[in-house]
Amino acid sequence: MSHSKKLVFIVGSLRRGSFNRALADYAAEVVGERAEVEYLEYADLPLMNEDIEFPAPAAVTRVREQVESADGVWIFSPEYNFSYPAGLKNALDWLSRPQVPGDFDAAVSLTDMPVAISGAGGKAANANVRRQLVELLEYVEASIVGGEGEGFVLPASAWQTGVYEIPEWDKTRIALQAEDLLAALS
């Protein structure tokens, strides 16, 4: 079956065994054949620096093209010190910059892009990072799906074992979020 829609998943943690990567992997299963899912690989992005902005470094161009070729984006982010992980913020900063020198009125990679937000973490369910992502995404004129998204409190066992067994209720919430995002792609 050919996929008519494409989603890019951005996982805020760079750790291979990240809980948010596990959440994203489950969301990809839920999306199934309804859309192609790609993960944004951004660990090699240089820090945002106007001195190297034009011409854009190859890694920046690759990330921008991957996002721009998508019909929607789903961000799965942990919360680091009540905020976003530095790598995720850096990727979003690059995606929000003008691509023509001095042209601050042109659309950027995330303009009008449907974006959903999820986060698995501690007892506050990543409320701070999800709220801050909404502020950032509103600023770059993304089309936010589902407001501050869904926050998931990790079971105590995840912290002890390093394995995130997603509870059934949370699986249902991810499935509902997937429906909302897929509906926003049309």
Structure description:
By secondary structure, the chain is an alpha/beta fold. The chain has a single domain, classed as Rossmann fold (3-Layer(aba) Sandwich), CATH 3.40.50.360. The protein is 38% helix and 16% strand. The protein is built from 6 helices and 6 strands. It is globular, with a radius of gyration of 16 Å. The two termini are 18 Å apart.
Compose a concise summary of this entry.
The chain is an alpha/beta fold and about 190 residues long. Helix content is about 40%, strand content about 15%. The protein has 6 helices and 6 strands; from the N terminus they run E-H-E-H-E-H-E-H-E-E-H-H.
Protein topology:
Blueprint: E1 6-11, H1 19-31, E2 36-39, H2 58-68, E3 72-76, H3 86-95, E4 114-121, H4 127-139, E5 143-144, E6 150-153, H5 156-161, H6 168-184
Parallel strand pairs: 1-2, 1-3, 3-4, 4-5, 4-6
Helix pairs in contact: 1-6
Largest sheet: 6 strands, parallel
What is the β-strand count? 6
Question: Over all CA atoms, what is the radius of gyration?
Answer: 16 Å
The structure class reads: alpha/beta
The CATH architecture is 3-Layer(aba) Sandwich
User: Helical segment tally?
Assistant: 6
Element order, helices and strands?
EHEHEHEHEEHH
Shape: globular
CATH class: Alpha Beta
- Report how far apart the termini are: 18 Å
Low-confidence stretches: none
Task: Report the portion of residues in β strands.
Answer: 15-25%
Write out the CATH superfamily name. Flavodoxin domain
